[in-house]
Give the backbone structure.
Amino acid sequence: MAIYPPEPFRIKMVEPIKRTDRQTREAALKRAGYNVFGLRAEEIFIDLLTDSGTGAMSQHQWSAMMEGDESYAGANSYFRLAEAMDEIFSFRFFVPTHQGRAAENILCAVMLGKEQYVPSNMHFDTTEGNIRARGGRPTNLVIEEAFDPKNRHPFKGNMDICKLRAFIEQVGGEKIPFGMITITNNAGGGQPVSMENLKAVAAVYKEFNIPFFIDACRFAENAYFIKLREPGYEHKSTLEIARETFALADGATMSAKKDAIVNIGGFLAMNDKELFQNVKNELILREGFPTYGGLAGRDLDAMATGLREGLNEDYLAYRLGQTAYLGERLLEVGIPIVEPPGGHAIYIDAGSLLSHIPQSEFPGQALSIQLYLEGGIRGVELGSVAFAYPDPDTGEMIHPRMELVRLALPRRVYTQAHLDYIVGTLERIMARKDEIRGVRITYAPELLRHFTAQFEPL
Ligand SMILES: *Cc1c(COP(=O)(O)O)cnc(C)c1O
């Protein structure tokens, strides 16, 4: 039996949520064009759309916000954030940004040219979108095990070092302005990357003189996975592991809405002084002055406090334990998921659960619709709706290798009873899965289409 870890906090403020009837949900979904992004939050009972910016801040974070310094330039809040940044990441320079994709946009604006490549284990959708928007080519080089949902490799987010080397040799290092790795690998199941792999990736990039940037959204969860699973790290603190991680890189992008447990925020950090100059100029144009980067002073304080809290090991044991509980309970009732459970989310293998629906009819989208209709639960499709794209050379649709539905767990928000309700809902869906049909796209933008696409049931 799966074990639920007792929460290392108690609840002092509550936010009411309510259940709706099926008829109301049917009407809401139709109005939203069968895309759960178009629903109103009050139409949802349990919202697992994302763990981004949806966490519950602590009393320490709320009180830090009261001390926010709203000076336009050189605010105290900025220096408090800079202290936390130095403690954890130790890059020479950083700028705050309003969220992760703003950091990605600025990095791409100043470093990436047309027809240039950016390798990673797997880029997240916004990173991929920002690279493509500048005419670049994002390339995913994760290990093969990542594509086998049943494979319980402890570090399924690892980069395939042979593929990386072969790729660089094939396209040429001069066509790669920077290389990345995403920790944990959100697009591939929230799976961690080992320190051994991070070191090997850093060494390859260095050999070819390619600056190495880490997409650090879930660096704390990744550090705790390393502590739990990698020999030699069991006695190191998550802070020590994080410091060792970032010492390998030339810079990082981060959405603080993830492991810094804030509702808004992010950063772009780097060691290169000239790059920092260019970044600041671009930031001033797009986001704001370099000591606030599109955020209020109070947001910087919440982030400084949250970055440290996110590394707390009692919190991380609960966090990863809660996700594992949901995953193991789903496996107990026969729902296929990406194994082992990731850090921030459970990824249902919709391609295998609804194997009668072809990729061109979006089995993940069909499942996300059923989750809402059956239980008022909102998850997100991460399959062909999110990731299929036309080959730039041939125009032919390239489908991703897995059709997933992500159930992301907001930090410190839902309880065991909520998770058991999710399991019960999926059990009922599974019992009548053969009746479930796919969908057809009626509208889709060119980039990041899952946010606004519209559908019709088949
Ligand atoms: C959320 C996320 C981003 C983008 O961050 P936003 O704050 O949503 O703009 C980038 N990479 C990864 C891995 C993410 O999870």
About this structure: The chain is about 40% helix and 15% strand. The chain has a mean pLDDT of 96. Residues 52, 99-101, 124, 126-127, 182, 186, 215, 217, 255, 257-258, 266 surround pyridoxal-5'-phosphate (CB under 6 Å). The first strand starts at residue 46 and ends at 47.
